Amino acid sequence: MSPRLIAVLLTAFLAVLGLATPAVAAPVQTLTWTGNNSTTEYASAPTGALPGETTIVFENSEATGNTTGMSHTLTFDTSTPGYNHDVSLNILANPFDPQNGRHEAVVTLTPGKYRYFCTIPGHTAMVGEFVVSDGGGDTTAPVVTAAVAGDRDSSGNYIESATVSLSATDAGSGVASVEYQLDGGTWTTYSAPVVVSAVGMHMLHYRATDVAGNTSEEGMAHFTIVEGQGDTTPPTVTASIAGDKDSSGNYLDVATVTLTATDADSEVRSVEYQLDGGAWTPYSAPVAVTGAGEHMVHFRATDAAGNTSPEGMSHFTVVKRDTTAPAVSASVAGTQDEDGNYVGKAVVTVTASDTGSGVAAVEYKVDSGAWTAYAAPVPVTAPGAHTVGYRARDVAGNASAEGSVSFTVVAGGDTTAPSVTMQVTGKQDGSWNYVGSASVTLTATDAESGVALVEYKVDSAAWARYTAPVVVSALGAHTVRFRAADVAGNVSAEGTGAFTVVAAAPPPDACPDSDTRDTVVIGGIDSQVENIDIGNGCTLNDVIDEDAEYASHDRFVQHVKAVTQELVTNGVLSSGDRNRIVTAAIESDIGGGTAVVARPEMKKRL
């Protein structure tokens, strides 16, 4: 005989005896379904039940894990063969509806199997079934197990938290409920994994009851929670540069710097940037850089745990948008007769300049000929009237208006080009390299009309007019090209010369036993100023010489003021760093020895 039937007969018997007052019977059981962010399964659902009047609870709320505001339905199947079709149930629940996602309905269940599902499009994988049984013949308790998960240390302790998951099965009437008891507390219905975060030892008991009323023996899981080390990983921060760019990759008018920081453990507390060595500034929005020239932006981020990322760096160049065409002109040189005609030859020189993006190309054409790239003065020797056209274009694509010069060439005159030579002088090492710099001298001669122009170019630089010896100090191999034109317009063939400049040997180290501490420290007072080499092997700590003997503390401070002022004058030290060093000297206890001045060799080191 089922427990429910026994309860009904007992109530009737007591009523006959006058010992019980008939009342409206409450539903025999409550079955609960829950929903969360999943679209493939319900968060929890029963697998078995008893027949009779039943309260159905469907909760789809933040409390059951729905953090996205997603709607679900609990709908009983009334058409698929093999299932009971006597209950019509369709509950729509949303965390933000008037019931906050928790709905109840009272139905009457009969023995058999019921199928339920979610009708929301895309949620059709949310489906399940449960069995209604009167429990007759089922005397076997459910099987229930526990699994503990979480990060563990080498001793097996769980770091910061442990998660306990319970699982119960019943081959007879089905599982009706699963309960747990943590550390001797009250028994609680299990609906989702239990997260335990309190530091210390813990014991969790658990049990399950089936629809027939059979309860399993209590199981037990024990574990220990220990404190974690917390967040020790700094954030990740990156920079991206955006804006219109020219063909050389320079940003036109403005470059916008966007910083992005992420932290997988705690959260990003602050992001900072430093532009061109300026002050560190909190980052809150993309930074627009409009100043023309090269720029360097450093950036860093700090998380809520206090971890600061290494400094990142991006560099870029901003140029002003060029809308002005180049300026271009031409001049004609050569020997002229009394009528102004050029005798034998006329040489046309084209000159172009651009203060914006720079000259990209210069072209010319003689009479009705084709436009030709201009690279050197153009000789015109054919007798007759001529017109030479010219034009230029800058890097930004702006083209000048076409210009022209006209002239007449008559037969005769100087037709021999000048002679030009190059001489390189300077201090040389054993391999004939020039040490520190090389001086290039050009000499041109012309026996007829005379030299009008000498030009040169170093490596890939533009051609330049030669007026005095050219000093080349850049280290490395160099090639110098040169040419000359005479008054009659004859241009020599290009000459070349090659040489190598190497660095001069460094001066001897004035402080072989140098004080190489990272910052300037005086008598234990850290000035926070970087302890740089002043250029001769001595550091700032060396020239301050705190270990020397001084007549008094004041004499020591006077010494520090004198040597740092000289370093400021020489451009080695900034005024701000000098002030910090002098302050550290004043706060120190250096001074009071037998000597009255710093050691003479310290003065020599400056």
Automatic annotation (TrEMBL):
Annotated ranges, domain CBM6: 333-473
UniProt keyword annotations, A-Z: Copper, Metal-binding, Signal
Signal peptide: 1-25
InterPro entries the record matches: BlueCu_1_BS, CBM6, Cupredoxin, Ig-like_fold, Ig-like_OmpL47-like, Ig_E-set
Entry keyword annotation includes Signal: yes
SUPFAM superfamilies: Cupredoxins, E set domains
Domain of life: Bacteria
Keyword Signal: yes
Protein name: Copper-binding protein
Organism of derivation: Amycolatopsis nalaikhensis
